[in-house]
Design a protein that fits this description.
Elements: H1 21-37, H2 41-48, H3 53-68, H4 78-83, H5 90-104, H6 112-131, H7 145-185, H8 189-192, H9 195-216
Helix pairs in contact: 1-2, 1-3, 1-5, 5-6, 7-9
């Protein structure tokens, strides 16, 4: 009598129903474009993909389809590959995640993006543990996407504030000669209305410009 083995059909469900293959392609291409331009991570990836980014992107698209859409098509072994890469530090994983977060927020829905980011954190943890020589090591607590994005916004805000401070300092420096002359002759800025001060500033900086040109650019 022939025995038949009956197995239940297991339907592979994606991490989130809104995720599509096109979104994953955009994720991989956008993410690795940021990686390639990163001062720290760019050279590391460039060295280990041997300059063949097209082949690497194709592998990563298959990998992320397997992770996010549960296609099962990726048959590679990322852990041994990453173990052979020398010089990777915990900060590199954090930078990797930061670039990943800034990519997912523009591609996936508000509901799907956190799930994609969580998958990335699990992968970062697995790779970090695989590289650790301590079997009892505790993996880092990776920053959440909102924390990383908030930090980047704060850093950009600080840069804008510093540039604005520099701009105001340059303006004050440019107006200083006329302001000093007005103070010396006893005329307020309101009384002058900006006429005499502007004339003095133009004369002063005009003389400075002529002196610079004659000194450094003209041979007698």
């Amino acid at each position: 009598m022939t025995k038949f083995e009956i197995r239940a059909h297991v339907e592979r469900q994606s991490v989130h129903p809104s995720i599509t293959e096109d979104q994953i392609s955009d994720l991989v291409e956008g993410f690795y474009a940021k990686i390639a331009l990163n001062e720290r991570l760019g050279p590391i990836f460039q060295h280990h993909v041997h300059g063949d980014w097209d082949e690497h992107l194709a592998k990563m698209k298959a990998f992320w389809r397997s992770v996010l859409l549960r296609t099962g098509e990726y048959k590679g072994k990322p852990v041994p590959v990453h173990q052979r890469i020398e010089g990777i530090e915990t900060q590199d994983f954090e930078e990797w995640l930061s670039l990943f977060y800034t990519t997912t927020q523009h591609i996936f829905t508000e509901e799907a993006a956190p799930m994609v980011n969580e998958a990335a954190r699990r992968i970062a943890t697995s790779l970090w543990l695989a590289r650790s020589n301590d079997p009892f090591a505790s993996p880092p607590i990776w920053p959440q996407a909102n924390e990383t994005i908030h930090l980047q916004i704060h850093q950009h805000s600080n840069v804008r504030e510093e540039l604005m401070f520099l701009f105001k300092a340059l303006i004050k420096g440019f107006l200083l000669p006329g302001t000093l002359v007005l103070n010396w002759i006893g005329i307020t800025i309101e009384e002058d209305g900006g006429v005499l001060r502007s004339f003095i500033n133009m004369c002063f900086w005009g003389v400075v410009l002529v002196w610079v040109v004659l000194t450094f650019f003209v041979d007698f």
